């Protein structure tokens, strides 16, 4: 919809219920290797059969669809891409307009843009598990209070029982997948990390910049595992990550939000870098912890996150929520 000389509401993009780190889809027989030439068009969804719409958001122009590709369950995420400033001249020149309403100085049109300026960012998870389907389904959420003892007696055993595959993470660290997308690679086994764009960012503009730093240490699941011995790692990610983003995208540290999630969506320590002003999914106070605060807390108390009571949201069908209810903690 194009509106001339009218008012339109600009809303934030935050919707933590609808997005929790979409995983990189990979073919089992290629061990996560990226297939095909990215410059070639292909329709891997030509045989996709829709089962249901798991959730959608008209405000954020995103939809999560469950269905099948061949005999495999699949989740497809469809998201309209932002309008880029550098494409405005072509958009105005080559689009078709159909008048819908005119009243005094206000006019409203239906704008049909050239196809290449009207793309839909599409993420495919296939084969998708029941956990993926539940993850994207709209549900009620509950705020959980977790003490250090709760983590050890409830959360940690639950995580260990899940045995969720992190192979896609290791593929990135070992450069078996997405190697061409890496922005910064520090190979040090203790303080090293790989910085690359998150799947939620189409990399066509910095307004919604979103990168992930995946640490090389494989024994750090989350915020709860951190102690003062990890300060060199955290400080390296914080400093080198900001420097790499400045060099690549000309975006200074003062324009960045750098944080960790708790609970994270996968249990291998990673840090989020997003542009300040972009309301990225999960950047709210109930889930995001600024890396600068994490570093300062560990400098003050080496075991801060071992004992600290933390709060985080869980959705109604989350197995971890059931464990907290069974333990009488909710």
TrEMBL record:
Composition skew (Basic and acidic residues), residue ranges: 1-33
Reactions mediated catalytically: a 5'-end (N(7)-methyl 5'-triphosphoguanosine)-ribonucleoside in mRNA + H2O = N(7)-methyl-GMP + a 5'-end diphospho-ribonucleoside in mRNA + 2 H(+)
This protein's GO CC annotations: nucleus; P-body
Binding site for substrate: 168, 178, 198, 200, 261-272
GO BP of this protein: deadenylation-dependent decapping of nuclear-transcribed mRNA; mRNA processing; RNA splicing
Enzyme Commission no: 3.6.1.59
Cell compartments where the protein resides: Cytoplasm; Nucleus
Keywords on record: Acetylation, Cytoplasm, Hydrolase, mRNA processing, mRNA splicing, Nucleus, Phosphoprotein
Active site as annotated: 270
Principal localisation: cytoplasm
One GO MF term attached to the UniProt entry: RNA 7-methylguanosine cap binding
First-level EC class: hydrolase
Region (Disordered): 1-42
InterPro entries, A to Z: DcpS/DCS2, HIT-like_sf, Scavenger_mRNA_decap_enz_N
One Pfam family named in its UniProt record: DcpS_C
Known role: Decapping scavenger enzyme that catalyzes the cleavage of a residual cap structure following the degradation of mRNAs by the 3'->5' exosome-mediated mRNA decay pathway.
Subunit structure: Homodimer. Associates with components of the exosome multienzyme ribonuclease complex, such as EXOSC3 and EXOSC4. Interacts with NDOR1.
Family (UniProt): Belongs to the HIT family.
Record-given protein name: m7GpppX diphosphatase
Lineage of source species: Eukaryota, Metazoa, Chordata, Craniata, Vertebrata
